[in-house]
Amino acid sequence: MEFKIVHELPGRIRLRTPAGTFSKDEAPALCAVLEALRGVERAQASHRTGSVLIYFERERRDEILTAVSIMTRDYYEDITMPRRGVPLASTLLRTVAGMAFRMLVLPAHVRHAVCLWRAAPYIGRGLKAFFLARRLNVAVLDAAAISSAILRRDFTTAGVIMTLMSLSEEMEAWTQHRSKEDLAQSLALRVDKVWVKKDGAEVEIPFSELRAGDLLIVRAGSIIPADGTVAEGEAVVNQSSMTGEPLGIVRRAGASVYAGTAVEEGEITVEVTAAAGTTRIDKIIQVIEESEGRKASVQSQAEKLADSIVPYNFALAAAVYLFTRSPERAASAIMVDYSCAIKIATPLAILAAMREGVKNGVLIKGGKYIEAMAEADTAVFDKTGTLTAAEPRVAKVVPFGGRSREEVLRLAACLEEHFPHPIARAVVCKAAEEELRHEEEHAEVKYMVAHGIASSLRGEKTIIGSRHFVFDDEGTPWADEQKAAAAEEAERYSLLYLAIGGALAGIICIEDPLKREAPAVIAELKDEGLTNIVMLTGDGRRAAQKTAAEAGITETCAEMLPQDKAKYIKELREKGRRVVMIGDGINDSPALSEASVGVTMKHGADIAQEVANVVLLDDRLEGLTDARRISSRTMSKIKTNYAAIVGVNTLLILLGLAGRVTPRTSAILHNLTTLLACGRALSPVLKKQP
Hints:
This protein is an alpha+beta fold. It has 24 helices and 24 strands.
């Protein structure tokens, strides 16, 4: 089997195989074959990404990889395997079958004993809530409903109530489990290579080779891939994902840093203390748990409302008994409640929406962002890498000062290779395409967010970046003919300026074509209610207006710094706008944080992915419209579910009080209503793609 190692921890390795190596149906068989190898503890395979994750005994690593390398498709293609995990339908069927067996087969006295044994946990939870927590909540109401049926020796009703409750709990547990699995796979950190300092030089090595004691170099915009202690430098590190602190904190020599946190500004050298350990795995689990904690206000309201209604059920039951002296009619008020369906169906709808988002390439990090996305009325786009192609290209290099075109490109690539940005990658790729070697000739490289890069080359100050940075901030002089040449190129391209020793050395023209789907996505967002659409960019006005016109955007702000973008969004929110910000660069991070919902792309800078609330996992702009549709339709589903739950259960209570239905019928219909509400909560909201 052909593969490459993309990530490795002690006893755990992730392999990437070419497309088509195994199919969806063959994945379980492949895992079974791998798990049959000596030393393999567990294996997971994803046909979509070609990813194979193997957990193994450390001393057998080489033996296992050798076995995988000689494995062919013949080993697994004809093997039929049952799907992993128990399907929801099987779980529900088993529960219903258990109820039928008890009712139809077991003798009455055995059935009654089983009913009492099954009721004990429910009654125990109710007593604990009432006497220890001093709360009248759903657990107390459930215990009262089951107890009232048992006291009336209606064991059938008690059994049916518990079975239907069990079905609801199983649906909720299954959805949570599947959602966590999908989220864990999407949130896993994938780092291929890192920069380390060896013998005074910077060297790029595979992440799998990083070891404790290595000096790891981390620059602005990058995620810190391993735990460690700062050995050199100073940086502002965003630790919100680890500690919850919303603002970046300064980390200097001697300070600890953690895997998964992001460097916002500066550069640090980290002495690794826990390379590729369990820290990131723990982080993933934490983020998943937090995603459930980021509840939509409608979800929190539903849960609070569910518990707040319970006392009224007891009050109604007491009033009915006082006036009618009928235990059966009083029991009807306890058998039927609004809280159970409301409390279960709403979080299920949120979890189902998050899971459906992942399946469609959209990671939404919590319920409150689903709600915010549904309520948004304004979309603000960054230009480079968001509306335009994820991989811009170098179209032209214009040298000045007697330098050659190749020299300008080579020096630019030498500086840009250290930083994660689409334009930096374009420069480096162009140099590689032309086979221009760019060895480390410069001194320390410093990155100025949204401005450019500064260093020193053979004793001369060297800078590369925007016009504002090179000429306004750094005061680099340029002649009229250079200005004329730049103006001409700015009509078609975005420009990078390279200056060496206080003189303009060249201009690099970046071709930044609009993504083909951008105009259609903009039109669809308008149809979905996002009536105000804006494009923000640090590029020149002419290039910005050209791109905006092609995309169908009428409002454009050009030559903006990161603080300008964040300020613009803050002003929109102060005007009452609910803003979705879409960006992918380091310079977009402040604006992403300021927006109601921050959206970034999979290829975007690590810090952008860290602060964003929604990540488009496959870089499709269509994922944005999917996120909007999932969010708005989920909120609509929650509201209609709520109305149906209130309407049906109110009718059941009235019929019970009037003596038209028995408590048993009320309980069955109420719990069936809860199951139907849960089933609808789990239903997808997007149409399947043909």
